[in-house]
Specification:
It is found in: Cytoplasm. GO terms for molecular function: pyrroline-5-carboxylate reductase activity. By secondary structure, the protein is of the alpha/beta class. The protein has a domain of 160 residues: Rossmann fold (3-Layer(aba) Sandwich), CATH 3.40.50.720. Helix 6 links the parallel strand 7 and strand 8. The longest helix is centred in the middle third of the chain and has 29 residues.
Length: 273
């Protein structure tokens, strides 16, 4: 199965590197292109057998599965210009949430899938979110599910929960990285610990927490119960969090959904559906 990547920015590069290092595909099966070809050649420097194509048309022609890894408003012009190349035997995979699978299907004959990856996939971990089009052939559903199984735990989602699922899986690492950095900064400012040591301890704590949850030793609530000894120090810290956080996460989801609605309106104007 030959893979084409249109766009090798942050997420495109992360996805390509994950597929290659997870041995989901061999380098010789991958073709890439980017508006700035130098970015595409960086991937070839690491994996010499990867083919850098001069443009989008060449990438589509050389590939069975074409991943479009560009900004939401850049997808329509690509599909509009190259629709005839996305033939019925090919599979188109978009990785952006504001463009729906029905919108993709309105422009091309290829089997269409939306796959929302996470930066955690770069470590061959975490979740990827998959939505299959109504016209998507079963062979491509199986192929793409299997492909993402090499780098993640693929989860099927319906359109209605696309944004919140993406907030948790794709945006979540950035949100919790921010909270962790604030946690570290406060520790450094309020105590005698230095930033390097606080960062190491916090990182190892997060890795350990992940392992506890992954292995099913505790749920989040039971973990808190185990650590929070009655009248102890952890409980005092939890009280501060309860008072300080308030509705911050409610506001977070409200903000991401408001931005998502703006993006949806713009793509609807482009696609007409």
């Amino acid at each position: 199965m030959k893979i084409g990547m249109i766009g090798t920015g942050n997420m495109g590069s992360i996805l390509a590197e994950a597929f290659l290092e997870g041995e989901a595909v061999s380098p010789s099966e991958v073709s890439v292109t980017n508006r700035t070809l130098e970015k595409a050649r960086r991937l070839q420097t690491k994996y010499p057998e990867v083919q850098v194509c001069s443009g989008i048309a060449e990438t589509i022609t050389n590939s069975d599965v074409i991943f479009i890894c560009v900004k939401p408003l850049d997808i329509y012009p690509i599909l509009d210009k190259h629709a005839s190349l996305f033939t019925r035997e090919k599979c188109l995979v978009s990785i952006t949430s504001p463009v729906s699978v029905p919108q993709l299907e309105s422009k091309v004959s290829a089997s269409c899938i939306r796959a929302i990856p996470s930066i955690t996939n770069r470590a061959l971990a975490g979740v990827s979110l998959l939505t299959f089009g109504k016209q998507c052939e079963e062979k491509w559903k199986d192929a793409i599910y299997n492909l993402f199984s090499f780098i993640s735990s693929p989860v099927m989602i319906e359109e209605a929960i696309t944004r919140v699922s993406s907030d948790i899986v794709s945006c979540g690492p950035a949100f919790f990285s921010y909270l962790t950095q604030r946690f570290i900064d406060a520790a450094v400012q309020e105590t005698e610990i230095d930033k390097e040591k606080a960062t190491i301890l916090s990182g190892e704590m997060l890795i350990g927490l992940g392992e506890l949850l992954k292995k099913g030793f505790y749920t989040l609530p039971t973990l808190q119960e185990k650590v929070c000894v009655k009248g102890g120090i952890t409980g005092e810290g939890i009280k501060v969090l309860e008072q300080g956080l308030g509705d911050v996460f409610h506001g977070l989801f409200q903000a991401t959904h408001a931005k998502f609605d703006e993006d949806l309106e713009r793509t609807k104007r482009q696609f007409g559906v």
